[in-house]
């Protein structure tokens, strides 16, 4: 059984949902309840996955590890299709995630006032341009890669929920909003939320 260290509402939720989608047993552990979390050389962050005693860090690395290990329809076998999929995993993990991270940084470091709001607005404008890229990839499909959900859709749905914490306008097209709604209604995603809520209680 896998062990997944998480924080409620964090990006670890997408990996939890992926494990459910792959039908893998997982024990989820709330990072805030672990006294010796630093012993995992966690760098202070989640997610952390443990597989047979081996610690795996960094969300994108964990995702690719799981998709390579378990049979699935998400990860193409090779070629340009696989490169495109990995590109979008990296877009979510290394571009969209840090863009939202700037909102959290500004929220914690700047005093309330016009300067802070200006910084938040600039960060949100950058996020809006990234959601436009997602819209272009969606075309007329339900998900980024067609009619079937992928872990990238799950990652983006998690990040989309972070905008509510800030007094900014995050603009998403109807296509993007429909994709996020579909992820939030997906059984593996719902199960992950329920399991994390129970574990954090």
Word description of this protein:
By secondary structure, this protein is α+β, with helices and mostly antiparallel strands. It contains seven helices and four strands, in the order βαβββαααααα. A four-stranded mixed beta sheet has the order 2-1-3-4. Helix 1 runs antiparallel to helix 5, helix 2 runs antiparallel to helix 3 and helix 3 packs parallel to helix 5. The mean pLDDT is 94.
Topology, number of strands: 4
Task: Supply the number of structural domains.
Answer: 2
The CATH topology of the largest domain corresponds to Glutathione S-transferase Yfyf (Class Pi), Chain A, domain 2
Question: Could you give the order of the helices and strands?
Answer: EHEEEHHHHHH
First CA to last CA: what distance? 22 Å
The radius of gyration over CA amounts to 17 Å
Q: Report the total helices.
A: 7
The major pleated sheet works out as: 4 strands, mixed
């Amino acid at each position: 059984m896998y062990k997944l260290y998480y924080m409620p509402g964090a990006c670890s939720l997408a990996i939890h949902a992926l494990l459910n989608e792959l039908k893998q047993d997982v024990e989820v552990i709330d990072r805030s309840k672990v006294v010796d979390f630093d012993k995992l050389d966690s760098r202070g962050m989640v997610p952390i996955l443990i597989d047979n005693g081996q610690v795996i860090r960094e969300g994108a690395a964990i995702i690719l590890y799981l998709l390579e290990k378990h049979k699935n329809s998400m990860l193409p076998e090779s070629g340009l299709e696989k490169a495109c999929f990995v590109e979008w995993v990296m877009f979510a993990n290394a571009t969209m995630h840090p863009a939202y991270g700037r909102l959290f940084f500004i929220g914690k470091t700047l005093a309330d006032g016009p300067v802070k709001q200006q910084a938040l607005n600039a960060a949100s404008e950058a996020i809006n341009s990234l959601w436009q890229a997602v819209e272009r990839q969606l075309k007329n499909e339900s998900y980024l890669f067609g009619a079937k959900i992928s872990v990238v859709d799950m990652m983006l749905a998690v990040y989309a929920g972070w905008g509510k914490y800030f007094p900014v306008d995050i603009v998403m097209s109807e296509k993007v909003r429909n994709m996020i709604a579909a992820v939030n209604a997906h059984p593996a995603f719902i199960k992950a939320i329920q399991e994390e809520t129970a574990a954090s209680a």
